[in-house]
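Case 246 in the screening queue. Each case pairs one protein sequence with one candidate compound; here the compound is nicotinamide-adenine-dinucleotide. For every case the pipeline is the same: read the inputs, emit a complex structure as C-alpha cells, and attach any notable structural observations.

Predict complex for case 246.
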Amino acid sequence: MSQTRIIINGSKGRMGQALIACAARMPELEVIGAVDVGDDLAALVPKADAVIDFSFHNVTVGVAELCAKHKKALVIGTTGHSDAEKSAIRHLQSAIPMVWASNYSTGVNTLFWLTRKAAEILGPGFDLEVVEMHHRLKKDAPSGTATTLLEILGDVRNLQFKDALRHGREGIVGERTSNEIGIHAIRGGDVVGDHTVIFANVGERVELTHKASSRDTFANGALRAATWVVSQKPGFYDMQDVLGLK
Ligand SMILES: NC(=O)c1ccc[n+]([C@@H]2O[C@H](COP(=O)([O-])OP(=O)(O)OC[C@H]3O[C@@H](n4cnc5c(N)ncnc54)[C@H](O)[C@@H]3O)[C@@H](O)[C@H]2O)c1
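Case 246 output:
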C-alpha cells in the first residue's frame, strides 16, 4: 500500500500535536514534516503529497501559494481568516485540490446537516441563536464552526448573513426581530469545543448540541481528508464531500 506523505503545519500547537499522535496510528499516512514557526516549509513541500495547515489565519495564504506552486493538495483546518485571506485562498482552487472545513469532526458535520434540516422544517416562526464555548486560549471568535452554523441558518432563511448577526446583546437593544440570528461566544477553562443551535418559538424550543471532548476527533477527520484529497481534481471540497454526505 502506498502511503500518503503529509506535512503538518502548526505542529507544535494543540491541534498539531493531536495530528502527530493520530497520524502515528494510521499506517496509510507518513508524516514527512512537522513544521512550526522558524522551520522551512518551502524546502519540504516538494517531497509531500499534501500539507495539513492548523496554524494561524494569516499563515494559510502563503501555505496555499506554496502548495499551488508545487501542485500539492492542501487540507485547511485553520479558522478566523479575513475576507481578503479567504478570497486569496479561493483564488487557488483551479490549481490544486483543497479541503477547507471549519470543523473536521464527523459529529459536527452531522450537526451541520441537522441544523439545515431543522431550520427548513421549523420555518420562520422560530428564533435562531447560536452559542459556542471554547478554552481560554482560543484566539478567534466566534469560532469557525459557529460561523458555518450561522451561514447555514442565514442560507435557509434567505438572510444577508452579516447584517443578520447579533453578537451578544447589551443595553436597550429593543425587542428581538425575526430577521436576526444571535451569536454568543463563551471562553473559559479547557473546553475543546461546544456548539448549540437554539430554535425558539412561543411554547416550545429545539436545541441541537455537539460537545467535543478530545481534539483527536478533529485530527482524525483532517487526516482522513488528507488521504482523500490527494486523488481529487483541483477545486474546493469540505468535510461533507470527504464523508460522502452530499
Ligand atoms: N477545523 C477544525 O476542525 C479545527 C479544530 C480545532 C482548531 N482549529 C483551528 O486550528 C488553528 C490552530 O488551533 P490550535 O488550538 O492548535 O492553536 P495553537 O495556538 O495551539 O497552535 C497553532 C500553532 O501554529 C504555529 N504557527 C503560527 N504561525 C506559524 C507559521 N508561520 N508557520 C508554522 N506554524 C505557525 C504556532 O506556533 C502554534 O504552534 C486555529 O485557527 C483553530 O481555530 C480548527
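Case 246 observations:
- The chain has two domains: 4-100+215-242, 106-212.
- The first helix runs from residue 14 to 23.
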